[in-house]
Backbone:
């Protein structure tokens, strides 16, 4: 991470929408969807009020991860065309504000999910936020072309958390859902990276398209897609 505050000025009065954008609402929607699936797939019913509150706090935790990710990645976001209009590189929100918001929402979401659901769900949310921010954002993303392969686990935890919200325990079923998302994530991101190779190259992010080229990336996409199909079909018979 580099300090981008020296290169630009920031709005004195950021809008509410700017802070909302820090939470990566599109990613948050995917987190909510997969968590709800995990919760509904559980063999026990959840009180609607408790279920709604728990999913809300999970969504806030996902947003907190997004804010912390944007805080740390502000320097490379400013270089990439795809992310240059995000609140921090666009000069709408300061990195410090993103850090404070992400930290506060992380603590709030973990505490409230622990109270509304159970301690195991709160622990899983805390671990997910940590995994996304520290191992993936701060380390893997800038150090290895396997960044999205390992880091993709962070996005695969929501159905497990949804199941734990309902049951308070683990089982094989949510981990199969975890595996599906885990296997889906690399080919999904690599397909996008094929159209954004120059962005990652300019930002010095070792995405597979940059380190191994387009042909190798397409081969990896094909291999993971085949494995994903096998896993999906096999899961149906489990």
Residues:
């Amino acid at each position: 991470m580099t300090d981008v505050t020296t290169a630009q000025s920031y709005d004195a009065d950021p809008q509410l929408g700017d802070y909302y954008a820090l939470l990566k609402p599109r990613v948050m929607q995917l987190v909510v969807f997969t968590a709800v699936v995990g919760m509904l797939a559980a063999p026990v019913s959840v009180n609607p009020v408790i279920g709604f509150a728990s999913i809300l706090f999970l969504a806030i935790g996902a947003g907190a991860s997004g804010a912390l990710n944007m805080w740390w990645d502000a320097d490379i976001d400013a270089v990439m065309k795809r992310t240059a209009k995000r609140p921090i590189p666009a000069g709408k929100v300061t990195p410090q504000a993103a850090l404070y918001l992400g930290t506060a929402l992380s603590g709030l979401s973990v505490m409230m999910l622990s109270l509304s659901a159970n301690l195991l769900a709160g622990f899983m949310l805390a671990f997910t936020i940590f995994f996304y921010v520290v191992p993936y954002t701060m380390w893997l993303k800038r150090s290895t072309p396997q960044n999205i392969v390992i880091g993709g686990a962070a996005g695969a935890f929501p159905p497990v958390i949804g199941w734990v919200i309902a049951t308070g325990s683990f089982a094989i079923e949510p981990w199969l859902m975890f595996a599906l998302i885990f296997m889906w994530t690399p080919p999904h991101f690599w397909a996008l990276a094929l159209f954004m190779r120059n962005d990652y190259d300019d930002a010095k992010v070792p995405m597979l398209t940059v380190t191994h080229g387009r042909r190798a990336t397409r081969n990896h996409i094909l291999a993971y897609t085949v494995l994903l199909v096998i896993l999906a079909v096999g899961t149906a018979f489990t």
About this structure: The mean pLDDT is 94.
